[in-house]
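Pipeline run #58 for the internal structure catalog. This entry was flagged by the ingest filter as a single-chain record with no existing model, so it goes straight to prediction. Upstream metadata was stripped on purpose; only the residue string is passed forward. Reviewer on rotation: M.T. Logging verbosity set to normal.
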Amino acid sequence: MKICKEFKVVIEAAEGGQEIDLSEIPPPPDQLPADFFETALVTGNTVTQVDNKSPSTSEKTPPAKLAQSADDDGPEIDPSDVKAAFNAPDAPKTVLEALQQRLEKYKSTHEEAKTAGDSSKARRMQRIVQQYQQAIKDYQAKRHVDFAELPTPPGFGPIPIGGPRASNSAGGLSQSPASRPAVMGSGGAIQAPARSSIGSMGAGHSSRESRQVQQYNLLQEREKQFKMAAVKAKQEGDLETAKMYLRQIKGLEPMLKASANGLPVDVASLPKPPPGMGHDTDDYDVVQYEEAGALPGSSVKNRTEAYSQLEKDLVDQVAMCVRNESHFKKAGDIPMARKFERFNRDSRKDLDSLRSAYKNSASVPRFHYETRAFTVIKCCPELPDNVMELSVIRGLGYSLTGFAPTDFVTYVKWDFPFPTEAPQTSKTMAFKGTNEPDYSTTFTIKIDRKARSLARVFKTKGIKCEVYVKM
């Protein structure tokens, strides 16, 4: 090990451009005499080697006088010896197995430190145990794990993430050819092998953009669209339209500044993109009607009915896209809002093409229906966080002995026991002459989402609604 350390000093000197004297280099390990280690004299921290073949080295011998043989890459540590020395387990076959091995190792070390009364080491090991427990949870949940940040116990093999890049960053024992010491060339000069740059483990994992980043990118894209539209309008001589677009850009600047500083932005208030400047405007090709083809042999009656049905379906589709686009914008889901914005634009284009074909007495174009399923979260994004709505819709089949349905005069009274010191209550208008009144009344109730008492009210009491009849 002493010779290994001296070789490291010599290698650093060679890489620094210093001259190396190879006359006092010891032979390779397999050529050392049998009594080499037995005759080594230890004096303080200095080792004096007595050997007939190689000259002795003393304290005055500078470490830079040692160098590595041209036909050997230097001494290597046997991984099996290191594994046995540190009582390390067998090399893991999976990432999860490697994480579990390291977790068990640090747990045992933590227990040993607690038993020995070493509180500092115990706290340090406890933090590492928590770090590995979180890494296991993230890996099982298929989230990104930065393996380079995880400490590796001595003697443990690399984490089998895949490829030599993972082995290097995971703390493997074996050296890659690029990390071996420099070797001597035929001319006596030091030849340092090319070093391969090893990136971080997280480079191949694309982290999902946060909502804040999505909003900022949307604002930048919308500003760019208005700038392009303003330049185009100015080139066409339409100065009024260009000024209108510039005013829209000025209105976006405060929102961009707020989003850049990490503040939330109401993307629902964004202006619509200028005509022809929407997202993915080049995703479709404009073709002539004759190229699309038509249904042969369609009569006038069938043609009118087909056009009417297609127009109705496209109108419903446009309304659905507008509704969902507004919903996802208010909910803060920018990618889905963009998707429905694109669907809305494409549907409007199809609708305009269909109406134009009908006016030109063309045959019904070829078409087909596709069913697509989207996940929509039922929520009320227009409501603030401290408000809840209660809707009383209608009553069904009221019956009271001795009274006819036309004699009923009913109303609904509700009671919400929050806050405890001032419960909220109200009632609907009275309806008479029917036993199935249509109340259709909405009430606003103040809540506090952070209050624990609110959760208890929802679990145990809820909202109490009572129907009253006026005699």
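catalog note: Strands lie at 41-43, 46-48, 183-184, 190-191, 387-394, 409-416, 424-427, 431-432, 438-446, 464-469.
catalog note: The CA atoms of residues 283 and 342 lie 10 Å apart.
status: ready for reviewer M.T.
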